[in-house]
Amino acid sequence: MLRDVLAGLICGLLMGSFYLAALIYIFFTNRDLYDRLAKRLPQGIPPVFVMLSLVVGLPPAWCVVGVIAGALYHGAISAFPGSGLGSSNSTFTVAIIGLTALLMLPALFLIIKRSKWGWPFFAMNIIFVGIFGWALPLLGNLR
Predict the structure, then answer these.
(1) What would you report as the CA-atom Rg of the chain, rounded to the nearest whole angstrom?
(2) Using 50, 70 and 90 to split pLDDT, how confident is the model at 143?
(3) CB-CB contact of 139 with 7 (8 Å)
(4) 44: alpha, beta or left, given left = phi > 0 and alpha = psi -120 to 50?
(5) Is 90 exceeded by the pLDDT of residue 13?
(6) Of 101, 99, 100, 84, whose CA–CA distance to 137 is shortest?
(7) How far apart are CA 131 and CA 137, in angstroms?
(8) DSSP secondary-structure letter at 87?
(9) Do 104 and 122 meet the contact criterion of CB atoms below 8 Å apart?
(10) Which parts of 1-143 fold into alpha helices (H)?
């Protein structure tokens, strides 16, 4: 159990690093993001506080998601043993792929709308499948 949770923690930290890199890319490519954020926030909350909270809070939040995914992976191993799809537990991998398919719907909508944010969201969903669908089971089974 501890090995699976630790693998989930590592995968969550890796996913948080990817999301942090994407967030920093968004901050640097949108020069007017600060002004648009300042218009939408309630008065008294500076946009720098929101941006700094995202930068500081995103990796630990993904670590929590990774720990939960590691615990779910441990449950999937004991309930549905069996490997497949390049993973040590095909049931867990199929569940992650299904979850990502649901999460990919907004990205596909943005791609159809020809928004500049569609492809980055799509890429992050593919990274999510790779990290949690395949890397977590492989890391959990390193013995």
Answers:
(1) 18
(2) low
(3) yes
(4) left
(5) yes
(6) 84
(7) 9
(8) B
(9) yes
(10) 2-29, 33-40, 47-79, 90-103, 105-112, 118-128, 136-140
Distances (CA, A) of 18 to 21, 54, 74, 100, 133: 5, 13, 24, 16, 16
Contact 3, 137 (CB under 8 A): no
Where b means 16+ CB within 10 Å and e means fewer, 34-60 reads eeebeeeeeeeeebeeebeebeeebbe
| Chain center to CA of 104 | 12
Instruction: Measure the CA angle with vertex 63, ends 57 and 67; round to 5°.
Output: 145
Length of the chain: 143
Assigned token pair, 134: 């395949």
Instruction: Give the mean pLDDT of the chain.
Output: 85
Q: Which amino acid is at 9?
A: L
With a cut of 70, say whether residue 19 has pLDDT above it.
Answer: yes
What tokens appear for 38 in the block?
A: 């300042």
87 φ, ψ (degrees, to nearest 5): -125, 160
